[in-house]
Amino acid sequence: MKDSLHKITYLLQALERGDQSAAEQLLPLVEKELRQLARGYLRKVKKIPLLQTTVLIDDAYLKLLDQNRVHWQNRKHFYGVAATCMRRILLDYIKAENRKKRGGGVEHFTLSDTELISAEKSAELLVLDEALHKLEKKDARQSQIVEMRFFCGYSFEEVAELLEIPEETVKLEWRMARAWLQREIN
């Protein structure tokens, strides 16, 4: 287990140096965790047509590989950026669906044609995303904890392990972040 954690960091650094073979070696090591992240995000919304776990993972992985200005520190940093990429992909999809509903898309669907994201869930996610951006500016770690707990479905223990901080700190910051977000959203 420990060897694979170090190997992830080593491969990220090799990728940063331009070693393209590192990308092929990295995917099998991170795929399970990326799948868990993607499922966590997709659980928060009703079924989204054409956006499946594998598609979300693939899109996020491609964005992660395309990062030019990121200095990969370790696997924790990688998964944090991956979670942010997935959230943005999902929100971009929601915004595109909302534009279609307003007539911006070429192809029009009726509700009987496909099951779309519920309007309430779309609006809630957009408001939450805006509040998370504000929280990130105020306290980046609290924002990361909310993202990992709410969107990814990680336990307190898993978040503590990934962020390398005590579990009690995660619980305290989770409570503070939730209270701040509640005030911000209301």
Structure description:
The protein has eight helices and no strands. The chain is mostly helical and about 190 residues long. The model is unreliable at about 105-115 (pLDDT under 50).
Short structural description:
The chain has helices at residues 2-16, 21-43, 53-65, 75-101, 119-138, 140-151, 156-163, 167-185. It has 186 residues and is mainly α. Helix 1 crosses helix 2 (21-43), helix 2 crosses helix 3 (53-65) and helix 5 packs across helix 8 (167-185).
Distance N to C terminus: 43 Å
Main sheet record: none
Tally of helical runs: 8
Structural class: mainly alpha
Helix content: over 70%
SSE layout:
Elements: H1 2-16, H2 21-43, H3 53-65, H4 75-101, H5 119-138, H6 140-151, H7 156-163, H8 167-185
Helix pairs in contact: 1-2, 2-3, 2-4, 3-4, 4-5, 4-6, 5-6, 5-8, 6-8, 7-8
Keywords:
186 residues, mainly alpha, 74% helix
